[in-house]
Amino acid sequence: MTKLYVGNLPFTATDESVRALFEPHGTIDKLALINDRETGRPRGFGFIEMSDSDASRAMNALNGKDFEGRPLRISEAQERSPGGGGGGGGQSRR
Predict the structure, then answer these.
(1) Full-model pTM
(2) What is the distance between the alpha carbons of residues 43 and 33, in angstroms, rounded to a whole number?
(3) How many domains would you assign to the chain?
């Protein structure tokens, strides 16, 4: 299974429109468009999980393709490192 990062999505993109774009290239196991936590508005990117061969085919066919006026940016998603953001972590100075 491969997880694809789909970037530069138009803010009008819906699960249905993105699914319709990817389905001709294979079976979609998971699709998630990311929204801003505070405003609930789309952030312009999402993730799609497909079999390795379907994902490769979709990435080759759709990367750079115009979708509602924006060129898509598609790549294999990189796993986030544990621990996330935030600063510090050291001892406080007194």
Answers:
(1) 0.82
(2) 8
(3) 1
